[in-house]
Amino acid sequence: MRFLSEEREEKRFGFHLRQAKQKPLPFKKFTVDIATLLAEQLPKDASLQVMFENYPLKTFRQAMNETEKDTQRMTEQVEAKEKMNRQKELVRDMGKRFESDEVIYRTSIGFVATGKESKAKLFDVFNTIATTMNDSNRLKRRRNKRAVQLYPRVPEKILLTGSELANLVHLPQLASDKLPEETKKMIPHNVSGIGSLPNNVMNNPTDLALGVMQHPVIKDRKVFIQGMFIGEHFVVTGNTGSGKSTVLNTLINEGFLAPFIASDGKPTPGLTFIDPARDTAITFFNWILRAETLGATIPWEKVHYFKLAHGKYPIGINLLGRIEGVTVDAQADAISEIIENVFENKAEVAARLLRFCIKTLLADEEVVHTILEVPRLVDDEDYREELLGRLNAAEYYDLLNYWENDAEENIKTSATALKNRIDLFSTSSSMKRIFGQQENHLEVKRYMEEGHFVFFDASNLGAKEINIFSSYVSYLYYRISETRNIGANLHLLAIDEAHRVGDVFILPKIIAESRKFGFSLGISTQRLAQLSKELRDTLTEVQNNFFVCRQGSKDSKVAADNIGTDLVKPILLEKLEKREVVVKYPFVYPNGVEEQQRFMVKVPPLDKYQPDGRVADFGNKELIASVDAWTAERAEKLSEDREYLTSEKVDKEIYHYLNGIVPKTKKSPVKRETEPELPIKQPESIPKESTEPTEEEKSRSLFGA
Description:
CATH topology of the largest domain: Rossmann fold
Largest sheet: 11 strands, mixed
Strand order of the largest sheet: 7-6-16-15-14-8-13-12-9-11-10
Oligomer: single chain
CATH superfamily of the largest domain: P-loop containing nucleotide triphosphate hydrolases
Radius of gyration: 38 Å
Helix content: 25-40%
Structural class: alpha/beta
CATH architecture of the largest domain: 3-Layer(aba) Sandwich
Number of helices: 25
Shape: elongated
């Protein structure tokens, strides 16, 4: 502000305000915000100065008492009756000033402007203030060229309560539609419901760096969140382009990748990451490569990257591989539910037939079966009788009874519906290669205990395929986690773009039950509303870690409800800038007291790196594409070095197995990835050098006779 005392006095015009009546009579309380109108009326080279200081309440009450005594004396004078009534009204008005706890301020109000043309405008300013505040007492003006001073005193005595002074001095009503947007931007203010973090909260550089606190005055205040709570599940949400993926990457990099890279091979918290869009998984793997380029020693035996669709080395995940500690009934029910869940039109008989088929194949203690054998079990009676003959009649009486009494009728009515469900696996080359292998390549228990990093690139899979894959992997991890000790090494299952994954029935159970076994869940999604109601409710009631980026108008209320609508309004979440995130996250003070914090930060942008470690310019699309291709090639090399079968060999093995050309594998413990691949012995009738199916083989049905 430039004080006009710097100008020559003869060029100035100004005045002070004073109260018309010296008695402590009231002015109007604040009801209408006139700040915008005053800003418009003030001349360009003008100043408005409001000074105030506390006024002794005792002195003010003495003045009130004197007025009351005057009123009592008037009651003795009959001729002063009319004046007495008016005096009583004034006493009553004075009493209204103290209906609530009020503070009295001795106030001075002054105006100064330069130039003759400003004189009329200052009168308009005075009239606006007087009209707004005049009541039992009134404001008057007195000319004074020095009404505004750099080091002022309080020359005039206008006594105002806090409610009356608020007409001129108050926090701006930023939510008012009458306050212009340009004016709002000029006023430093915190976002509604979002305060600044105290200096001793989330300021420890040894914690996880999240970003820079967003504050109108405090700049460059870095925020560090305590890593212990990442293991208590978390949710990141935001619409397209909001910076949601950047927030997720920052959390995982700071909480998991950075400690892993710096671990020098020692156990650290591990990560399994499911990415329907590929880019985030590629970014993580790119960061590991860059760390190695900069000299870090990467324990590559703990890093796994699986491309699910059209990968050169397809991972084997056998749905019918027995899970440690899980009964045949429980596993059959889970797999049936996973498959049935992707079909909108429910078929109860087909679902029952599928469940019994899966249970029958699981119950075979001699042979490892795959989901691709379900149609053969239904169609081939000889195959079915042979399999049933290997079952323990006492243990699986219900199975034998079903096939003897109910199966025939169920097959007549629902065989087609059943096969439609298995078509998800047999007609998709990617799904067939993954779920048609007899082996399970996933060593989940080892991944968890040793702190491995497992990336699943699910790009180019269909919606149903992504859902089945994600559901089974989540279920597998959930069941394996139950076999771990309480307080075991933390392992995070993170699902990016969870809205594309669909309804995964086991996720609410993971949130509710698995944390004590060192297994937690991180979810990133565009819209919370796209998640199942059970999952949303569990996320809200069981965990408290929310990272909310910009929301659409339909989703802002849902997101605000999870943070607390008493603190954060939906409109705030709709106006967030890119990479701005409203956070709800706990903090533990040194004395052990835990307190929930709500704040807003801006996370730094992400980079990808070239083979030489230099940053790849995101604006250069060709360069980014080449960096992604190089990263994917290095990821594929992991599977090649571990001697996984190529997709061509996997196709041939599945074909031979389903057609009875290769002896069926007996059940044995899942082998470790570091063990050498054992060659499958070919029958004597098939030359070992043969690599293509014979004409006789091609003529056979894929599922037998």
